[in-house]
Amino acid sequence: MSTLTIQNVKSDYQGQVILKGLNLTLEQGEIVALLGPSGCGKTTLLRAIAGLQAISEGSIAINGQSLSADGVFVPSENRGIGMIFQDYALFPHLTVSDNILFGVKDLTAKERSERLEDMLQLVKLEGLGKRYPHELSGGQQQRVSIARALAYQPELLLLDEPFSNIDSQVRSEMMLEIRQILKQRNVSAVFVTHSKDEAFVFADKLALFKEGGIVQHGLAEELYAEPIERYVAEFLGEGNYLTVTVKSPTQVSSVLGLIESTKTLNLALNSQGELLLRPQQIDLQPASQGHGEIVERRFLGTICHYWVKVGLQTLEVRSQLTALKLGQKVNLSISAHPLVIF
Ligand SMILES: Nc1ncnc2c1ncn2[C@@H]1O[C@H](COP(=O)(O)OP(=O)(O)OP(=O)(O)O)[C@@H](O)[C@H]1O
């Protein structure tokens, strides 16, 4: 059964439509990233799931139980949802232990103490229960907020930009650590971020937002390799757009010659389009009579970025050949793959 089902959710602030009819399903134990630029409605959806923001249409349900729908509104505290914020929102006057147990009700003293030990162990803060938040590092404070959210065993965890205050050097380690904790407990989570790199590391699936709607939802690999529109392609990474003409259902012509598609193209013969080529999908070989010329380069250690002029276009290429110089003539080739043409 799906943990979270969002159907046709609309929401507005003072007459301004913010969410324009969103659909999203989250399976038990799955982590989904709501990804998109600032102001596109990610936090508004998170708040609507939490019951902190009204919806004007549609429905939100957890395990089949309706939380927000026509005539239904379950208050935030009864939704079985844990939340983790950017600023951790710990109570400064409470110890780590009291922070963690804050939302835990209806347990005996023995059960409370077991729950606390379990949580401290889970987030690797054993022995620090008596400290106050200001006596902890940022990463430790974030782990307390995770323990607090998980201590009352929520059905669903919501995380709003939880890593943006963490030092970039420890951020990805921390993300992997928290991801592991959620996976260990099979907790479903919705994670808001504007960073594709964070989404790639932390989430199982991505839901890419654009102006109050979800443009594409799926595995990161699917969105990266088979974006349904240019906005998705560009949000997820660098790309070149090569003008091509469709020559057959599996072949296009271009300034680089014929390029084969391993997937049938649903485009009219002789129609033109822009072929998406990620920099690593272009193979580069030095050739004295080559059709391209290196006009810019950036050495990055194990690889080099080259900008290669071919005809009227300049393409960005990533190569393990790191010693090629400006002005070098090269040949570019593309191996057969499922072509994405806009
Ligand atoms: N309390 C509010 N009153 C009026 N408008 C609001 C309010 N909160 C958000 N908005 C508007 O709703 C839109 C979506 O905001 P939201 O915070 O959901 O975006 P976001 O994608 O989470 O952005 P960010 O990444 O910057 O947090 C924005 O245009 C914002 O100005």
Automatic annotation (TrEMBL):
Q: Please give the name of this protein.
A: ABC transporter ATP-binding protein
Checking Gene3D superfamilies in the record gives:
P-loop containing nucleotide triphosphate hydrolases (3.40.50.300)
Could you tell me which SMART domains the record lists for this protein? Answer: AAA
Q: Name one Pfam family in it.
A: ABC_tran
| Organism for this UniProt entry | Shewanella electrodiphila
Keywords associated with the record: ATP-binding, Cell membrane, Ion transport, Iron, Iron transport, Membrane, Nucleotide-binding, Transport
**Which PROSITE patterns does the UniProt record give?**
ABC_TRANSPORTER_1 (PS00211), ABC_TRANSPORTER_2 (PS50893)
SUPFAM superfamilies cross-referenced by the UniProt entry: MOP-like, P-loop containing nucleoside triphosphate hydrolases
**Coiled-coil region(s):** none
Sequence ranges assigned to domain ABC transporter in this UniProt record: 4-236
Gene Ontology terms for molecular function: ATP binding
Q: What lineage, starting at the top, does this entry show? A: Bacteria, Pseudomonadati, Pseudomonadota, Gammaproteobacteria, Alteromonadales
Asked if the keyword ATP-binding belongs to this entry, the reply reads: yes
